[in-house]
Amino acid sequence: MSSLRSLYLRWCCQVQDFGLKHLLAMRSLRLLSLAGCPLLTTTGLSGLVQLQELEELELTNCPGATPELFKYFSQHLPRCLVIE
Description:
By secondary structure, the chain is of the alpha/beta class. It has a single domain, classed as Ribonuclease Inhibitor (Leucine-rich repeat, LRR (right-handed beta-alpha superhelix)). Helices cover 26% and strands 14% of the residues. Strands 1-2-3-4 form a 4-stranded parallel sheet, with helices on one face. The chain is globular and about 25 Å long. The termini are far apart.
């Protein structure tokens, strides 16, 4: 799965921060959708800055996505379009 470029986990209500840690090995990931994942926290989501090749990150209706987190992403993933 190291060559995976897009991953859609929209509305997967069982995805948790622990699961996000497994995504960090997917260095070729360009698009990640976590919209509507209710169990993700700001802490877990902030780790996604390790995915430096990320071009689009969808966090619509994700309770862990705070204004502070969006600012953090803009500083650490400047080439990534983060969709609120």
